[in-house]
Amino acid sequence: MNNACGFVLAAGFGTRLRPLTSRLPKPMIRFFGAPLLDLALFRFRSAGISDIAVNAHYLAKEIETGLKASPWGRNVKLSIEDPVILGRGGAYIPLRNWFGKKTIIAYNGDIISDIDVAAALAHHRAKGAMATMVVLPKPLGRDNAVYCAADGRIGTIAKTPPATGGAWTARGFACLQILEPEFLDFLPPTGESDILDAYAQAIAGGHVVTSFVHSGFWHDLGSPAQLLQAHIDLLESGQAQKETVSALGLDAFHEAHRSRLAMVSPGQIWQDPASNLCVTGPSSVITGKEISPPSPAKIELGPLAVVESGFSTSGPFKASQTVIYRSAVIDHTVVHSNAIYDHSHMIRCDKA
């Protein structure tokens, strides 16, 4: 895409997602078998963006390894923040020369979405904007709201709307923003900073700061419960499921890795060749050459289960509404539904 570059923000600690992030940075957590980092890169590559940067701090080596393994990680610029993390604003400064005069499209590496990056950029340019936030139809309860006018103009990013300027609609930030290079002038030249301060200055200075509404698939994977719910929402998406799986990049990821993503329809049953693993839909099973079958025990999963073949168990068990990663080691005497299983944890997810 001419004169635009992508930037995946991947430096955070993933504190709310612990203990899943005790060994992996948040962007390397898998969604239907694919790391979030890969799906973020896919958003850019599928929009025709060839120049991409990724920042890293927490477990930066894992991000570096993930880029090397990704089908979309070739020639990606890695910006490692060391010794301290630079925050939502400071992350841009080490890359300023690399950005040059290109429009910057920044995407948080801890979400899953089918945002149309090309359409958002076209909107940004049609508005002649200095900055554009992709927003959700409704606000997110825990965050500041993005207050938008009828024409999309942003009045403030705060807990309350502007006191003047007419009617304002509260929307949620969808974690993708488009910035012209001069927007970075509002950031401090060194150290940690918050990009919301730059937005406040740009709005106060009368610059065009606008919004683009995304109404498709979107999830913040901030907590284990939110991660599980995102899996469940895709499983329950009905007729839109096949299109969403493709739009997210899941089909492309598994094709590139020669793994298989089997989406099990409601009421249907998937079984492994030895009939050790029985999965009832709506569910999903991920298998591949490098993934071994589970231990020989009768395991019944679903509905609403996502399972990567390659986990092990001490005996037979049943579970529904669950995500089981291939590294999981499961004690069959302590199994719960509404849970995520990774290499050494069983994480209850009773509330999203």
Distance between the termini: 37 Å
Q: Rg, please?
A: 21 Å
Largest sheet: 9 strands, mixed
What is the average per-residue confidence, as pLDDT, rounded to a whole number?
92
- How would you sum up the global shape? globular
**Proportion of strand residues:** 25-35%
Percent in helix = 10-25%
Within CATH, the superfamily of the largest domain carries the name Spore Coat Polysaccharide Biosynthesis Protein SpsA, Chain A
The assigned CATH architecture of the largest domain is Alpha-Beta Complex
State the low-pLDDT regions, or none: none
Instruction: Please count the beta strands (DSSP E, at least 2 residues each).
Output: 25
**Category by helix and strand content:** alpha/beta
Separate helix tally? 9
Total count of domains: 2
Mind explaining what this structure looks like?
It is a single chain. With 352 residues, the chain is α/β, with parallel strands linked by helices. The protein has two domains: 4-219, Spore Coat Polysaccharide Biosynthesis Protein SpsA, Chain A; 223-348, no CATH class. It has helices spanning 36-45, 60-69, 87-90, 96-99, 117-126, 195-204, 224-235, 241-248, 250-257; strands at residues 4-9, 30-31, 34-35, 52-56, 77-80, 103-108, 111-113, 131-136, 145-148, 154-158, 169-179, 209-213, 218-220, 259-264, 269-271, 277-280, 283-288, 299-301, 305-308, 312-313, 317-319, 322-324, 329-330, 339-341, 346-348. The mean pLDDT is 92.
Summarize the structure.
The protein has 352 residues and is α/β, with parallel strands linked by helices. The chain is 22% helix and 30% strand.
